[in-house]
Amino acid sequence: MDLKRIMKTKVPETLRSLLYHYGRHGLILAVFLLLVHDVFGAHGFLAMHRKQQEIRKVSIELNRLKKENAALQKDVQDLKTDPQTIRKIAREELGLAQPGEVIIKLPAPAPESPAGRP
Question: Which tens digits make up the pLDDT trace of 54-100?
Fold first, then answer.
């Protein structure tokens, strides 16, 4: 029975001694690991910063596409309703003319050759 009493009193004392000696180091290590995880982890500071940059780039691209879409919608509306736009396209792209007009097409300029070569 003496052995049981000794074991009961020594184990808690040993445990207290270990916690007292290594407790601060363990706590500091745990805090350090949490900070490293918060900075470099999958949802940490650096990942959040990268996502914010990506959101900014996508927002800029979205604004550019919205402007382009608005311009294209205006062009479509003009092609449906504006006679001047329709006439301009018919003249430039289709080569049409009004009665009494003559269309003269000039040949495209020849591409320039690099210097020193004929």
Answer: 999 999 999 999 999 999 999 999 889 988 888 888 888 877 787 88
Q: CA dist 3 to 7, 9, 16, Å? A: 6, 10, 20
First to last CA, the chain: 114
Give DSSP secondary structure letters for 13-72: HHHHHHHHHHHHHHHHHHHHHHHHHHHHSTTSHHHHHHHHHHHHHHHHHHHHHHHHHHHH
pTM above 0.70, yes or no: no
The alpha-carbon radius of gyration of the chain (Å, integer) is: 40
CA distances, 45 to each of 32, 53, 88 (Å): 15, 12, 56
b/e map of 57-95 (b: 16 or more CB within 10 Å)? eeeeeeeeeeeeeeeeeeeeeeeeeeeeeeeeeeeeeee
Residue type, 111: P
